[in-house]
Amino acid sequence: MSPGSHLPTRVYMDANATTPLLPEVVDAMRPYWIEHFGNASSIHLHGQQARTAIDRARETLAAFFNCHDAEVVFNSGGTEGDNTALTGLLRPGDHLITTSIEHSAVLQAAERLALRGVSVTYIAPQPSGLIDPADIQSALRPETRLISVMLANNETGVLQPIEEIGKIAAAAGAFFHVDAVQGAGKIKFDVRRFGCHLLSISAHKMHGPKGVGAMFVRRGTPLESLLVGGSHERRRRAGTENVAGIVGFARAVELATASLADGAIDRLATLRDRLETSLLRLPGTGLNGALPDGRPAPRVANTTNIWFDHLEGEALVIALDLKGVAVSGGSACHSGATEPSHVLMAMGLDKTRARASLRFSLLKTATDADIDHVLRVVPQAVEHLRAISPVAAGTLG
Ligand SMILES: Cc1ncc(COP(=O)(O)O)c(C=O)c1O
Known about the structure:
Layout: E1 11-12, H1 23-29, H2 45-65, E2 72-75, H3 78-87, E3 95-99, H4 104-115, E4 119-123, H5 133-139, E5 144-150, H6 162-172, E6 175-179, H7 191-194, E7 198-202, E8 213-217, H8 232-235, H9 243-261, H10 264-279, E9 285-287, E10 303-308, H11 313-322, E11 325-326, H12 342-346, H13 351-355, E12 357-361, H14 368-388
Parallel strand pairs: 1-11, 3-4, 3-5, 5-6, 6-7
Antiparallel strand pairs: 2-8, 7-8, 9-10, 10-12
The structure holds pyridoxal-5'-phosphate.
């Protein structure tokens, strides 16, 4: 919103790509770039100040995960957490079970490991986007060492039955990794309840800084570090700690926890539902992530993914951008790629419909005025594009 006006000039609805820092986060970080700039490994006062700040941040993350301080490892974000989980546990001859709707940070790590002699099973979702735990169960082999399943999908927001999968992993004696990047701050979570050994999250998806993340690593998990060089993070992640980033991350986590408790996330779901219900009234639209009875699958509060038949999603993204609305078609992490979303394709959409899909992911600071603006702009853009679209004319497959 522009100050003093009720009409938003730009509405950012791409929170699953990234989020802005909240002012409280910037305030918490500032001293650690300037006055308290020390290296947490130094023994003098500057070093001690940095170390104390990291220790405090670790306590915050441990409370957030519901784990011991020693089970928190700070790193550079979700990509590093996902890469570390897979690469740090799997050796030639091992078997990995994951899903075909994971983020590319998991999928490409799995592909690389497959070249090195790890066998990989990719479980496909149901059309709703949900993974059936029975499919994980039947994919188990004696040599299954790791199961890696995301908590919330970045494109649809659909929440996976993590606790059930955790029980299957425990019964099979397999390690269990959860990519919780898109769930963190959106639902209450608890690594003990999930039954996971490893879990990765990223600060920039929850109003913290980019380039900072954390992993839960259950005590005793034989995880080899990806980076070597120093004894940081109990030898689990070498490299001088990003003190300001870690402090900002912890502040963002505290604010996210407060939002979960004070009803802000429920309010967000109400806004998202209003947006979704209105958009689905447009002809030739549908929800990606619906159960067979038409209701949405369980999902995070901020996300909806909708197909708009007879147009190109990319064209709609550009048209909306010109009208001040930022959304994403397919996965924003692959911007520039014209391939239809692997997630939507795995859910059974055909290429045309996958390409005609848009993700709206609301910031937790979203307002009614933002929704009103989007609801003014989208129907016009859809109508206009359909009128001129080669897809609508049937000249583009
Ligand atoms: C589900 C999921 N996992 C991992 C990542 C990668 O996280 P990062 O951007 O912190 O590397 C993303 C980013 O979009 C994501 O959505």
